[in-house]
User: What shape does this take?
Amino acid sequence: MPDPALKTFGISGEIQGAAIGGEWLKTSGKTLAVTSPIDKRQLGAIKCSTPDDTNAVIDAAHDAYLKWRVVPAPKRGEFVRRVGEKLRQYKVELGKIVSLEVGKITQEAQGEVQEMIDICDFAVGLSRQLYGLTIASERPGHRMMEQWHPLGAIGVISAFNFPVAVWAWNAALAWVCGDAVVWKPSEKTPFCAAAVQNIVAEVLKEMPDVPPGIMGLAIGDRHTVGEPMTSSHKLPLISATGSGRMGREIAQVVGKRLGRSLLELGGNNGLILTPSADLDLATRAIVFAAVGTCGQRCTSLRRLIVHESHKAEIMRRLTAVYAKLKIGNPLNEGILVGPLIDENAFETMEKALAAAKQQGGKVTGGGRLTDGVPAGGAYVKPAIVEITHQAPITCDETFAPILYVMTYKNFEEAIEIHNSVPQGLSSAVFTSDVREAELFLSPAGSDCGIANVNIGTSGAEIGGAFGGEKETGGGRESGSDSWKVYMRRTTNTINYSKDLPLAQGISFDV
Ligand code: UN1
Assistant: This one.
């Protein structure tokens, strides 16, 4: 019996692995069993996309783009508005599928769907604000301006941990910008993607003038889906979320054909806890960021850089909260931490903790939890590791609830420790001292794409640009002016005089 939430979206048994709008292709790739991290229960199966299927989706997206690009942007916004409406309607059911496939607690799963709704709203407004500049020309009787035009079909490669929101950040913007979208979801979350495909298909049905190919989906591995996408000239932008290894590979393939890539890769997010910090606020922020989503957000807090005067007190508070954390079936009311995505993730956590111990770390917590949790899932006790910042393991992003706690003596040193890792996604300082706060946000402060004051590292709103520097890949998605990467800019100079003066005062009489 399929879960009722899956039934809502017509998902049961084995489904096809590729779709163009509401039409599911007859895919013939390998069969992939879809299981839930909650209890290893099989939810169904997918017949994956072959390279030919993937190319069919890309071709359809390209053809759709040719039509979509000339639809007025506010009309494109109307399509996105309706997608947002449908998402409101299906928030609970789609959230349930996110919980089933990722193991997120209900609150966080629905929060993820809310991010989709929010970015749709943002994009609808944006559809009337794709502004270009007018520029003063140096020549008499001339006018200069810039216009933003649609770019093409966009490839979106998303990760398991935010299986629907990150796609929406890209798709909602891409659509109002006049682009089509081809989506490769994680193989761990194919039903989330199938559900979203069917939700958007309902809107396409209501709006027969919209070319269905703007919503393309191909499910499969890097060979059958990823590579056809990254190497296709019909996808001028590849937006990818995932590991550093994956990002490097994508950047090379896309770079080779001089395409654009928007990369959102690993984070190794730090929080500086200063002597003037409000410890009540900080404790709550640290716990949510470190153990929320079982430590599997790109923005999860991994490093707590605490002033030595607060070390004992914050350890006392954190260990007390950790001891009573409700860990278990994420669908149950009151549970705050669900399972890791799979056994591999568990092994990776175990290895990181072993390395931390070997490098002088003192580990509290960690290890498998078997009592009071569904059998089959990889449930763990979140770990706190007291360790020096010189320990190499603290430079790794381990997708699990491990919090490294390290101390500092003066604020400049704290910033140095903070910036000493290869990644640069999210960061935070807890302080009541305006000088420390401003220094942290200044050019000499945090080197991350996201820098917060008295807020944790995770749980960013959609209105800001999301992404980071260094090995995080440099991409920016979601709010602010991130939309510009989904468009091409043209600079136009118009001569309304009866002369032909050349720029730079050049005379060239013929
Ligand atoms: C991610 O983990 O890839 O800021 C995205 C956050 C969420 C998005 C995380 N809004 O934690």
Remarks:
- Residues 231 and 253 are 6 Å apart (CA to CA).
- Residues 115, 161-162, 166, 241, 297-299, 458-460 surround 2-aminohexanedioic acid (CB under 6 Å).
